[in-house]
UniProtKB/TrEMBL annotation:
One GO-annotated biological process of the protein: proteolysis
Peptidase S11 D-alanyl-D-alanine carboxypeptidase A N-terminal domain sequence ranges: 87-308
Range of residues in the leader sequence: 1-18
Pfam families the UniProt entry points to: Peptidase_S11 (PF00768)
Alphabetized InterPro entries for the sequence: Beta-lactam/transpept-like, Peptidase_S11, Peptidase_S11_N
KW Cell wall biogenesis/degradation (keyword) present: yes
Protein name: D-alanyl-D-alanine endopeptidase
UniProt keyword ATP-binding present: no
Active site: S117, K120, S174
SUPFAM superfamilies recorded: beta-lactamase/transpeptidase-like
Length: 343
């Protein structure tokens, strides 16, 4: 039988557990004979032991879960039915060489989709270019509480952290309240910050991109894989954003407590990956998202994965792309003349 459980298709085969009990026929006859003798001669009591064999038959129940894509905007638009030689679980993807701008792989790269917390990369870029003091203390307020998706946070109203720590948490741990506080404390507040985000997108040529808030919790924050590759390249030019986005963890003092925050990208802690900048994102409308700059196969690559179906599928897609790039797109070794010219 099959049933849908939380977006997962479950196949279950059920069988019973049976207990079979058998008794020896000879023992039964002997028991009856003994009983008759006991009635005839009560003084000569005899006890007969009847042996029983008990056999337990146990069968296992097998339940197999098959994960199905969430009903994201991209899935509803049919992006996951696109023919894909790499069999990626992402509805849209783009891989390009950062130096030459050669496109190595493209799948629905012009589709405009919700981008979730990838929005925080633009938030961080605008904050970094505002040159506000990173050591200035900001405070989390009720205005920073998420009323869009009702997500939780360890940064309670009244928490005071420096702008630098807020920026670090927004990039590394995708902290929504920190990102909103950064925008709220921008000169002119959110009313000025959101236009600044859109102005920066337009300046970079990201014509398919639009922001309505700094966290990405709204599905109205939209972009394309092509535009996001441009954003990754621009953000990668800022050393602070490279550092903050690739930190595995950070200890933060919250009042009297010291709390450890971690990266949302498990590839950051993987020693086989050389990641220069990254950002993850997820809301139901956007699916699982991941952008990064990484070095592999002798190349500096920018990778964008949008609307990936499944909790770990964006990581699996990144690994699949790396294997494919390493096998098919390794940068050619420099010639002897080129090496001489470089020296």
């Amino acid at each position: 039988m099959s049933c849908a459980v939380g977006g997962a298709l479950v196949f279950a085969s059920f069988s019973s557990s049976a207990t079979v009990t058998s008794s020896s026929t000879a023992a039964s006859k002997h028991h009856r004979k003994v009983a008759a003798t006991a009635h005839a001669a009560p003084r000569a009591k005899r006890v007969a032991m009847v042996s029983r064999r008990t056999t337990t038959v146990t069968t296992r129940t097998t339940v197999r879960f098959i994960e199905t894509p969430s009903q994201s905007v991209g899935y509803a638009a049919g992006l996951h039915s696109t023919e894909d030689p790499l069999l990626l679980r992402s509805g849209a993807a783009l891989v390009l060489d950062q130096d030459t701008h050669e496109v190595l792989y493209s799948k629905n790269s012009e589709a405009v989709l919700p981008i979730a917390s990838l929005s925080k990369l633009m938030t961080a870029l605008v904050i970094s270019e505002a040159h506000q003091p990173l050591d200035e203390v900001l405070e989390i307020t009720n205005d920073d509480i998420d009323t869009e998706k009702n997500t939780s946070s360890r940064l309670r109203p009244g928490t005071q952290l420096t702008r630098g720590v807020m920026l670090h948490l927004a990039l590394m741990s995708s902290e929504n309240r920190a990102a909103n506080a950064l925008g709220r404390n921008y000169p002119g507040g959110l009313a000025a910050f959101i236009p600044a985000m859109n102005a920066k997108a337009h300046e970079l040529g990201m014509l398919d991109t639009h922001y309505v808030e700094p966290t990405g919790l709204s599905s109205q924050n939209k972009s394309s894989a092509r535009d996001l590759a441009v954003l990754v390249n621009a953000a990668h030019q800022v050393p602070l954003l490279r550092e903050y986005s690739t930190t595995p963890s950070l200890d933060v003092e919250l009042g009297r407590r010291q709390v450890q925050f971690h990266t949302t990208d498990r590839l950051v802690a993987n020693p086989t990956w050389d990641i220069g900048l990254q950002k993850t994102g997820f809301i139901n409308e956007a699916g699982q998202c991941l952008v990064m700059q990484a070095q592999m196969a002798g190349r500096k690559l920018i990778m964008v994965l949008l609307d990936s179906a499944g909790k770990y599928s964006r990581i699996a897609d990144a690994e699949r792309i790396r294997k494919w790039v390493t096998s098919n797109h390794t940068a050619p070794a420099p010639t002897a003349r080129a090496a001489t010219d470089a020296s």
